[in-house]
Write a structure and sequence with these properties.
Length: 399
């Protein structure tokens, strides 16, 4: 008897006991389906959050000042003042596409008896060149806005929709901390709503205006965008070294902060959680394997005379063992394939309803199918071994 014939016999046995076989496969079906769906949902959610959190900064690194501890291990320092000249020098370095200078503030915007807190980023024209800021309506800041310290402001679309509603706000004058500002534009927010702090909004102002109105340095942070993303780290090191040299600081140095490390940690954490939950769901596979072993033991008992007849006409113990192992493996593999099909259907429907798209990994599918077949072999070994050890004479006498 060859392998193909063994598979035919296995399928014939499954088909002749359809209900029993389906109930036996149920644990395998649920286990494989659950594992694939959980991993697909976890991968899809991870990809979505990674895209929202890190995609905007793929080719941008922020430079910051890191002080040296003193002899007692304590740190006392003040950040060196950054100027437009410093920003211009960084801009001229090899590999730097755009050097971005920013400062920050917080304020309350009032308009027509309505009020909202906003997180303000002070920017220059370099900000719009380096960041992926999409204009919804109005205009960007001009060089004149920055040079003349104009009281102009841009708000993000989230703030407009939740605060100004359907008002035609571009060109309107709003009150910010007791001073009038003109809204010149609305831009597409780069912060997902779920990552916002309460109901606060976001706004952009010329960094020169932020410096004047909030008594802060005109540039508190410098970020760089590299001409080539692959050389971003090397470019950041070059820029940090250059800033350290020109500021001649003795109590610290400039270094860089990259999103890549956070992204790797985030993906590792999310993958670990997904696999942990998937492993818990995989327990049903073991339960299904016990069911397979139970039904195969019943099958051996039912087919005792058949086993004795095969041995009487020359079937070896090895052939009997392989036959029952193939039947057990076919049963679990078929259950695994059904579970995979259900998982594909469920994730397709879920992808139409959820805010992210579940991703089924081919690797997980192959592992699921292979593991279901392996369960058939492992849990079918005892019944197969029992069948192969039956004495032909005792088997033929069995009623």
């Amino acid at each position: 008897m060859n392998i193909i014939e063994s598979f035919k016999i296995a399928l014939s046995s499954i088909w002749s006991h359809k209900i029993r076989s389906l109930l036996t496969m149920l644990g395998i079906i649920i286990g494989v389906c659950a594992v694939i769906i959980i991993v697909a949902f976890g991968t899809g959610a991870k990809n979505q959050m990674t895209e929202e959190l890190f995609s905007a900064d793929k080719n941008i690194i922020q430079l910051y000042y890191e002080p040296f501890p003193d002899e007692t291990g304590q740190i006392f320092w003040s950040d060196p003042d950054l100027t437009e000249q410093d920003l211009a020098e960084v801009q001229q370095l090899e590999g730097v596409r755009v050097a971005i200078g920013t400062n920050y503030a917080w304020g309350s915007i009032s308009h027509n008896d309505k009020q909202i807190e906003v997180d303000i980023t002070g920017v220059g024209r370099d900000y719009f060149y380096g960041r992926n800021i999409k204009l919804v309506e109005g205009r960007y800041f001009t060089e004149m806005d920055v040079d003349n310290v104009n009281r102009v402001i841009m708000i993000d679309d989230y703030t407009k929709e939740n605060f100004f509603r359907d008002e035609d706000i571009v060109g309107e004058i709003v009150d910010l901390q007791g001073s009038p500002y003109k809204i010149v534009g609305v831009y597409e927010s780069t912060t997902p709503p779920e990552f916002r702090w309460g109901d606060s909004g976001e706004a952009l102002m010329p960094r020169s205006t932020v410096s004047l109105m909030y008594f802060t340095p005109e540039i508190t942070d410098i970020s760089i965008q590299a001409e080539n993303p692959e050389t971003l780290v090397e470019t950041a090191e070059r820029a940090a070294t250059h800033l350290t040299q020109i500021k001649q600081s003795e109590d610290g140095m400039f270094t860089y902060w990259s999103m890549d490390e956070w992204e790797e940690e985030f993906e590792s954490f999310y993958t670990t959680i997904t696999l942990f939950i998937g492993s818990i769901a995989g327990i049903s596979l073991l339960v299904g394997g016990i069911g397979v072993m139970n039904i195969m033991l019943v099958s051996v008992t039912e087919r005792t005379r058949e086993i004795g007849l095969r041995k009487a006409i020359g079937a070896t113990r090895t052939r009997i063992l392989i036959q029952f192992l193939i039947e057990a493996m076919t049963l679990t593999l078929l259950g695994g394939l059904i579970g995979i099909a259900i998982a594909y259907f469920f994730t397709f429907i879920a992808g139409l309803l959820l805010p992210f798209k579940p991703v089924i990994s081919p690797t997980v599918v192959i592992i699921g199918a292979s593991f279901s077949a392996l369960i058939g072999i492992v849990f079918g070994l005892l019944p197969a071994n029992k069948a192969s050890k039956l004495s032909p004479i005792d088997a033929l006498r069995h009623e």
